[in-house]
Predict the structure.
Amino acid sequence: MSSSAGSTVVVTGATGNVGTSVVRLLSQDPGIASVRGIARRRPEWSPPRTEWSAVDLSSDRADPDLAERFAGADAVVHLAWAFQPTHDPATTWRTNVLGSIRVFEAVAAARVPVLVHASSVGAYSPGPKDHAVDESWPTHGWPDAAYCREKAYLERTLDVFERDHPEVRVVRMRPAFLFKRESASEQRRIFAGRFLPGPLARPELLPFLPDIPGLRVQALHTDDAAEAYRLAVHSETARGAFNLAADPPLDAAVLGTLLGARPVRLPRTAARSAIATAWSLRLLPASPHLFDAVLRLPLMDCARAHQELGWQPRWTATEVLEEFLDGLQRGSGLDTAPLHGSKVG
């Protein structure tokens, strides 16, 4: 898509962590004339040149005229995703997989020339923690975790979509874990739940930090990821997958220095048992299956995004985490349903 004035971009999942950052950047971009934000609930938040539509993408309640909402768009950025309920993977499958397929079909029906899809590091098969892999690493996910299973399935769906619709330029973003100050309350609710003790939101009170074998992951500021999406929308040649992450990788040593806590070795089995018990009692939304997947995620090489998109993260991974923890302490959020703030007591 060219960057000439008059471009229209549709963003699904526009009120969530990534969606709010993407909409904000696009609404400030002089090369974008209008942004159509799609979300389950209309927000009070109203950035410039943005119009909202309330659409539930889950297959049984979806808008039958989705293609009409995409009509005339120069690009669709598909971000809509449901993380819960983790105890009912059929429900997330309907929203995440079947809903995404409906988006892809509507893109083709409306003849939108560009589709930018939010894939994830979670789509990758288990990989190394001591060196980074590029976008050619297999994307079969970790089959026991619904999140990874759904992301991997959509990678295969897009393989077929690209074969059948070569006229559409398809970009797949595979970001690391995404954080920003305004997402802190939402992510606390999604992953830790309402029973998170207040002291855990104050890292200076942590006496020690669990050092779990394999727990070495990458992070990225959500606004940095949003910039990659913006660049992909404007590019006329970028297609395929792009890894997105910031340095350094986060492990117990890095986190211990950041939080001023002493790393203490904790066996995987002990950590998983605690998570599994809390999840089975519905005290913790994050499942032990996702924990298993995180321990196996590869580190990503982001050279392709640097070279082909001209993308560079502005925040380091440790700066990202510092900002997020500050937001967690303050109960930060935004004026959208997914990101509403909630103070940790």
Summary: The chain has a mean pLDDT of 91.
